[in-house]
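User: I'm putting together a teaching handout on how sequence relates to shape, and I'd like one worked example. Could you take DUF4192 domain-containing protein from Streptomyces cyanogenus, show the sequence you're using, and then write out its predicted structure as tokens right after it?

Assistant: Happy to. First the sequence, then the structure tokens directly below it.
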Amino acid sequence: MTNHSETTGPFESNDISGQEPPTGPTEHATQVTLRTPAELADALPYLLGYRPEDSMVLVALHDHAGRGRFGGRARLGIPANAEDWEAAARQLARGLVTGSERRDGRPERMVAYVCQEPGPGESGRDVKRRLERLAQLMRTECGNLDVPVIEALCISDGRFWSYCCPVEGCCPEDGSPMGLPGTSVLAAAATYAGIQVRGTLRELRARLQPWETSAALEQEIALDTVGMNLVPRMLDATGRLEVAEETIALAERIIRRYATAAPVTGTHPADVRDDDLLADDEAATLILGLQDRTTRDKAAAWMEGDEAGPALRLWRALARRCVGPYGEHAAAPLTLAGWVAWSTGDELEAREALAMALAADPDYLFARLLHQACNEGLDPEAVRRCLRAERVGRTPAQPAERATPAPRTALAPPQQTPSLRPGSHPQKSDQRAEPGPRKGGQRRRRARSDEEDGRHTARAKRDRRRPADSRPRTPMTDPTGPGTRGPAGTRTRAAAPGDATRGGVPSDSRQSEADG
């Protein structure tokens, strides 16, 4: 245990960015020594790259020349039901130890954190007492794996408490105040190294969640209107190829538009600017066009160089436009956002975007495979090589870009206006951004592609009235077509490249974010 009346010994932080620690010393390596619980509490945002909320975190420590070196980190959201705490602690400990053994060697020690803000009528001290059992379960599970927890901290309401101090009266009952952000030695070292700590995961997810403003209704009308023209064409072999070319050409124009837009300061103003540069009909065309997986794979080739940044902004903007019953359509742009983020080295946003894609559609294989690869710390270069090879020889269409970026506009409704339910709201993502069960009665099925015969099917939302000619139907002459039902009423699913198996990340409701 840690004796709080003395120093804990130096802990060398070569890994404040959250990436895998370097295997050997370098000439210009930055080393920061942490000796006290206060410094360990202050280090957590720099170890994760963001400020955790409602989280249980384990950080691995490795012996290195008589010092403790930070290794992998793993985080889970704190289960709302205390009966699930033991299973969550076991999953977190085993996941981190297993990942560390694979990448960095088995850790010798652990540091544990529980972070949660007080609820109504609670104080930080109340949170510390309530989560004491969870912290003890984390220590027990790590001990069962022969990896002792040398420090366990609770962080709440701007203060921290230790669960490991053996000295009576050493730690104040009301906790110790956290230092001002950016004033510690570790903060100075991170700033010098060019490392920035983001806000919270909630703020990151807000950039990817569907609109909940009055503009959402206009976007939903645009999706309905464009879909009545686009989806029937996607069900035809010839029309499908034309839609794919039009989708890629439109995405290229928007990416160039974003690349030349005037920069703004702050994530929210930047997202508002991107939304204003994308018209409702353009967003609807791209969202529906990307439901074709071959088209999506072509769009995934914008993953590096000068194209990556504007492409990521576009996929975020499209995810925000998957409003109302189109929530399941967000799986495609969210997966593309996660892929580009991972390809450019942002594992944090990659994991969150991919987890949100799986929440939108747990069966989305591309998201499942990328999520597993990102969590296991694989090199994205293997995927990049495949996409580069597919891009060789393809000549993208280069239609003329409009002179002035179009503002968001609502398309005029067709002669038979879809019946819109007043008061409908977009689907909300799970706060932990983890795979969850789909709500089939609340989402419209996407049009899926069949790589063998080029046909697609789209299933309209049952509880929503649509014009009679707006619901694409698959011909029933071929019983093997996508979306058909056999004699027993079993629905067959269209095949796509890489969909032969169901491997990938299991849709565990508490998928750990293990870096190491």
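A couple of points you could highlight for students: Residues 1-28, 395-516 have pLDDT under 50 and may be disordered. The longest helix spans residues 237-259.
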